[in-house]
């Protein structure tokens, strides 16, 4: 009962029955439904004492003690019912998580490009995963050094070449190939795997190289928005970008209500600039500073627009903190919606999603750093109710890269989707 009170906008009790209502914005509407409720309660009779006999048929008639449900009138798109029994959130998530894995066997992972921040985070999660084991890690710069932070076995960095890839693929020594390489680099490795025609191993590419694939060979691996069954049955999975993941999650539930191009003001910690030295990851340049870059036609602008089927304007910036992204997104609306309408829409769409939290407040980037998920909130609507500002945060190295990669590995290998993702590092709503 306490949960119902917390979730409702108001309640009214009479004769042991309680009415909860949601989304009513005027006193007149509330008064009207209370009057109707009171009349129905007054007319109720106990069926054990209120049966009558039909004189002609001998059959008994019973008066129901159930109270009719009423529909709130605040929006035709966001109708919820309120009754004296219980509140049920509409489960409109068309793509729920896959929690019950069917595979309990070990799988071998080869990580190509293990030196970067994403590779290091993925290694840490594989180390704690119940079924995944690293078989090979490749880095030209670290060749010959012992892999740190991995305790399941002793692994030494290799510098795998094309012929090495073919040999390993031919011998079925790798179940999942993870390409953690810069953009434009992984194609020769993918071609080498394809040339063997083994078709048993899975390839996951963390770069942008195959996010715009039109051949049908690659599946875009954003589990919360793209078909999980397609990801689970794919052999080649393109891992989404960090900025793009958070922006899509923040915009998707409103897609049918958008009137014009949304504007995304994105700010990332400097780990997003990679390990290669540049002004965008130089802490001396970044101190007390915010650096805008690629303000038009950024590759993530193209990615977000292509995946949503809705053009967006994306303006990225890099800040002085290490990891974490915050998006402030202005979305023009083609019909009037309240903040509560919009929040309800997001809660319904992401019901059951372990890595997405919907908040009434604007999330802070410092709270998402080191956490495996996305927080979407604020839902600030202007006075005309024709524009909403949504704020989303994500850790660019985790859900924006390695955590999402692990989700895709789990789905493709038929494990529990969240296996290996630390539950205590997920933000709960």
From TrEMBL:
<dbReference type="InterPro" id="IPR036291">
    <property type="entry name" value="NAD(P)-bd_dom_sf"/>
</dbReference>
<dbReference type="GO" id="GO:0003942">
    <property type="term" value="F:N-acetyl-gamma-glutamyl-phosphate reductase activity"/>
</dbReference>
<dbReference type="InterPro" id="IPR050085">
    <property type="entry name" value="AGPR"/>
</dbReference>
<comment type="pathway">
    <text>Amino-acid biosynthesis; L-arginine biosynthesis; N(2)-acetyl-L-ornithine from L-glutamate: step 3/4.</text>
</comment>
<keyword id="KW-0521">NADP</keyword>
<dbReference type="GO" id="GO:0051287">
    <property type="term" value="F:NAD binding"/>
</dbReference>
<dbReference type="InterPro" id="IPR023013">
    <property type="entry name" value="AGPR_AS"/>
</dbReference>
<keyword id="KW-0028">Amino-acid biosynthesis</keyword>
<protein>
    <submittedName>
        <fullName>Unnamed protein product</fullName>
    </submittedName>
</protein>
<dbReference type="Pfam" id="PF22698">
    <property type="entry name" value="Semialdhyde_dhC_1"/>
</dbReference>
<dbReference type="GO" id="GO:0006526">
    <property type="term" value="P:L-arginine biosynthetic process"/>
</dbReference>
<feature type="active site">
    <location>
        <position position="242"/>
    </location>
</feature>
<dbReference type="GO" id="GO:0070401">
    <property type="term" value="F:NADP+ binding"/>
</dbReference>
<keyword id="KW-0560">Oxidoreductase</keyword>
<feature type="domain" description="Semialdehyde dehydrogenase NAD-binding">
    <location>
        <begin position="108"/>
        <end position="234"/>
    </location>
</feature>
<keyword id="KW-0055">Arginine biosynthesis</keyword>
<dbReference type="InterPro" id="IPR000706">
    <property type="entry name" value="AGPR_type-1"/>
</dbReference>
<dbReference type="InterPro" id="IPR058924">
    <property type="entry name" value="AGPR_dimerisation_dom"/>
</dbReference>
<dbReference type="Pfam" id="PF01118">
    <property type="entry name" value="Semialdhyde_dh"/>
</dbReference>
<dbReference type="InterPro" id="IPR000534">
    <property type="entry name" value="Semialdehyde_DH_NAD-bd"/>
</dbReference>
């Amino acid at each position: 009962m306490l949960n119902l009170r917390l979730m409702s906008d108001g309640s009214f009790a009479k004769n042991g029955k309680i009415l909860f209502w949601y989304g009513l914005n005027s006193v007149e509407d509330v008064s009207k439904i209370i009057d109707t409720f009171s009349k129905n309660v007054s007319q109720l009779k106990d069926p054990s004492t209120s049966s009558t006999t039909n004189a002609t048929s001998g059959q008994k008639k019973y008066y129901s003690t159930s109270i009719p449900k009423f529909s709130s009138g605040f929006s035709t798109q966001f109708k919820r019912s309120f009754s004296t029994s219980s509140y049920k959130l509409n489960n409109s998530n068309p793509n729920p998580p896959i929690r019950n894995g069917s595979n309990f066997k070990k799988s071998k992972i080869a990580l190509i490009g293990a030196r970067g921040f994403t590779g290091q985070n993925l290694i840490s999660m594989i180390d704690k995963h119940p079924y995944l084991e690293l078989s090979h890690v490749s880095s030209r710069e670290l060749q010959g050094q012992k892999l740190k932070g991995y305790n399941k076995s002793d692994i030494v960095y290799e510098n795998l070449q094309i012929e090495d890839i073919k040999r390993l693929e031919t011998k079925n020594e790798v179940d999942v190939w993870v390409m953690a390489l810069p953009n434009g680099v992984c194609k020769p490795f993918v071609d080498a795997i394809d040339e063997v025609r083994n078709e048993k191993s899975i390839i996951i590419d963390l770069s942008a190289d195959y996010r715009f694939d039109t051949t049908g060979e690659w599946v875009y691996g954003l589990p919360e928005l793209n078909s999980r069954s397609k990801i689970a049955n794919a052999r080649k999975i393109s891992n989404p970008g960090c900025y793009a993941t958070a922006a899509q999650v923040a915009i998707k539930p409103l897609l049918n209500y958008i009137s014009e191009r949304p504007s995304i003001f994105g700010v990332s910690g400097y780990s997003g600039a990679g390990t290669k030295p540049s002004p965008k990851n130089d802490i001396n340049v970044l101190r007390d500073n915010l650096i805008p870059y690629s303000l038009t036609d950024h590759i993530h602008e193209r990615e977000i627009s292509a995946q949503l089927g809705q053009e967006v304007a994306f303006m990225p910036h890099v800040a002085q903190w290490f990891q974490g992204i915050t998006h402030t997104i202005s979305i023009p609306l083609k019909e009037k919606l309240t903040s509560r309408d919009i929040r309800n829409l997001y809660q319904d769409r992401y019901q059951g999603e372990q890595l997405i939290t919907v908040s009434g407040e604007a999330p802070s980037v410092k709270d998402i750093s080191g956490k495996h998920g996305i927080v979407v909130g604020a839902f600030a609507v202007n006075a005309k109710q024709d524009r909403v500002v949504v704020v989303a945060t994500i850790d660019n190295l985790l859900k924006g890269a390695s955590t999402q990669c692990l989700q895709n590995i789990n789905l493709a290998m038929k494990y529990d989707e969240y296996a290996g993702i630390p539950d205590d590092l997920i933000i709960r709503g």
